[in-house]
Amino acid sequence: MAARAATGSDLAELKAAVLSAVGNTDRGRKTSVAQRRSILRAVEALEACNPTASPVGSELISGNWSLLYTEPIREGDAKQRREGALEGPVLSRLRPLTAGAVRSKGITQLGLLKLTIPLGWAKPKGWVETTYLDEQMRVGRGDKGSLFVTVRQRGKQ
């Protein structure tokens, strides 16, 4: 995806718009169709200014990321996902293995108990393309049409 040049203040405004749009959505579970459209427009504007030419090859992709928002492509998936899910803060730890390959671990926290779960046993299938990446924010799109907005955990690389 070719990015257009943007000034630091342009990026700051675009990122603030995305953060504002995804705020108070309970990571995407509490959104209306109109809100999801607004979020998508804000994310697409940010993606158009991606400052990182090759996100998966960038050192910036390594680190601990907190999920702020996720959205499936189909409305039925959104309804199903919102029904009865009990979860703590969702985090992702990424570390590049080789160019084009990334190892991921799921991390969840329930009360004081923090669990790190290697995902290899589940034999996950699918992919997520990082469409925006900088020091603080990462946006990705999955092979099934999902959208993920994450921010780097403060003080953790």
UniProtKB/TrEMBL annotation:
Compartments reported by the entry: Plastid
A Pfam family recorded for this sequence: PAP_fibrillin
Ranges in a coiled coil: none
Residues covered by the Plastid lipid-associated protein/fibrillin conserved domain: 13-70, 116-149
Designated name of the protein: Plastid lipid-associated protein/fibrillin conserved domain-containing protein
Keywords for the protein's UniProt record, in alphabetical order: Plastid
Gene Ontology cellular component list: plastid
Top-level taxonomic group: Eukaryota
